[in-house]
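From the shared-data thread, chain only:
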Amino acid sequence: MSAQNSLPDQADVLAQLETANKDLAALRGDVTQLTSERDDFKAKFETASAQLTEANTKVTQLQGDVTKLTGERDTLKTDNTRLTGEMADFNKRLATELAKHGIRTFTQKSAAAAPERKLNATEKVLAAKGVQSLDQLASQKKTNS
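Structure, as tokens:
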């Protein structure tokens, strides 16, 4: 074997060069496609990142709103409880004053339940005194004494 036989001939070199050029063109196409896909993904990422930032801002704002509304709700519940107690106290004082003048109170609740049953003697006395139990009557006598 001579040194000339081990070297590729010109046709083989040209064939290899053409194959390498085809591979290079295919790789350039792949690089172009990958670059385009990368740019698309970057744009999508930036859009998603902006949306995430906006959503986090909105969440923070809504958390503040929830805290504010929870405080308002708690304040209103407290006010409602206080006013309900004051109204019950007022109704008791009003009933007591009306009973002192011999006027019986007549509520819508008792009007709806009027045809129920007859009162026994103790219930009649309690109603005339403007109290609902013997304990209330005893405490009323203590306060009047």
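The chain is about 85% helix and 0% strand.
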